[in-house]
Amino acid sequence: MPGVTAPVDPRSGWDLPAPGQLPRTADLEPLVTRVLAPNPSGMTLDGTNTYVVGAPGSGQAVVVDPGPADDAHLAAVEAALTARGARVAAVLVTHHHGDHAEAAAPWSQRFDAPVAAADTAVAGPRGRVLEPGEQLALAGTRIGVVATPGHTADHLAFRLESGAVLVGDHVLGRGTSVVTHPEGDVVAYLESLRRVHDLGPSALYCGHGPELTEDPIAVLEFYTAHRAYRETQLVAVLETGPHSVEEMVATVYAAVPRQLWPAAAQSTRATLAKLRAEGRVEELAGSFRLA
Ligand SMILES: [Zn+2]
Q1: Cβ(14)–Cβ(229) below 8 Å
Q2: Is the Cβ–Cβ distance between 61 and 54 less than 8 Å?
Q3: Active site positions, annotated
Q4: How many helices (H) and strands (E) does the chain have?
Q5: Is residue 288 classed as helix, strand or coil in its secondary structure?
Q6: pLDDT band at 5 (very low <50, low <70, confident <90, very high)
Q7: 192 C-alpha to center of ligand 1: Å?
Q8: Is the C-alpha dihedral spanning 8, 267, 51, 99 positive or negative?
Q9: From the CA of 280, how far away is ligand 1's center (Å)?
Q10: 286 burial class (0-12, 13-18, 19+ CB within 10 angstroms)?
Q11: What is the whole-number distance in angstroms between the Cα of residue 285 and the centre of ligand 1?
């Protein structure tokens, strides 16, 4: 689009595994093993990353984002637990979407361990509702609960003692995340990016795609710049006259595969909601124009 320059993704120069090339199970650091679920798609990239976290020798671990209730995935997570000699102390969930939370209830039963999440429905009647700022003493380590609303209202990140942060769908290993609509919130999302940035993370362990260890701060700054870029693009489109969301998506996301346009429409609606709240955009019968 003329006059609007896209920010450069710092990961484009990094040596990250290609899509589909993530190992099924990988030890990322002494505290963390990642197990990739077999649910790849346009939205979930390589599939959902489930993280097994615990101090070596503690005999315990927490499972973060169990993912889909899939027998092969369960077997792979149980193999990772066995390799660590660990039993499950808790199942933590970053947000309520099924690709992260579906297995929470059945695995909680299987492991006889509580679910902990911000969403009461995900935590369930025997679970624990997490509060931002909490420090959880679990599996021989401390895990900080970080509010990261934006992608969804209930989204949490988990900061580990090593300085790494498990970011769920707040930040993805490839590309950018979706601010869902109507649940998501662009202003909250930008604040959440700043909150994780200010933690000075040593690594970002994402809900989908490879872990980001080389320069996490650069990725967070890119994400912030990317949101501003999309907003600038939308305003530029609206400067040419009123448009529907579908028309704006077709222009702004012309270079993005069409299968991702429904998600792009959600992020577009979320950005338009921000612009409306700021009094910069008006809606009339499904058509948006500058105020
Ligand atoms: Zn997800």
Answers
A1: no
A2: yes
A3: 99
A4: 8, 14
A5: strand
A6: confident
A7: 17
A8: negative
A9: 31
A10: exposed
A11: 32
